[in-house]
Amino acid sequence: MSACYGLSPTGLSLFVRVTPNAGRDVIEGVETRDDGTAVLRLRVKAVPDKGKANAAVVALLAKALGVPKSAVSVVSGETARLKTIAIVGEPDLTILQ
Fold first, then answer.
1. Structural domain boundaries enclosing 59
2. Is residue 32 part of a domain?
3. Which one-letter DSSP state was computed for residue 69?
4. What CATH code is carried by the domain that includes residue 31?
């Protein structure tokens, strides 16, 4: 099984699958996809309109990882369910286990 994150010189790259317009904001855990890759499943209440869901993803991950929102950014997949998130610094990785 592969990891849902990779280390970078500035911090961490996190691979996520987002379900927008959900009933609540929640991190569901790590999921192994059919191709063998791992992603962190997230659900957010926000609708996928004008970056609202991406902002909710950033806020949810920042809180869970114990880093400021400014340290979390979407680097790819802005309009897709599968996203790569960059986290600067040393996040608390206990949510990934």
1. 5-91
2. yes
3. G
4. 3.30.1200.10
- Grouping H, G, I as helix, E, B as strand and the rest as coil, residue 22 is coil
**Sequence-ordered list of residues with C-beta below 8 angstroms from that of 50, at least 6 positions apart, any chain:** none
Look-up: residue for tokens 């960059």? 86
How remote is the C-alpha of 30 from its chain's centroid? 11
**Which residues have a Cβ under 8 Å from the Cβ of 83 and sit 6 or more positions away?**
15, 16, 17, 18, 54, 57, 74, 76, 77
**Domain-located, residue 40:** yes
Domain count, the chain: 1
Q: What is the pLDDT of residues 25-78, one digit of tens each?
A: 999 999 999 999 999 999 999 999 999 999 999 999 999 988 999 999 999 999
Say whether pLDDT at 83 is over 80: yes
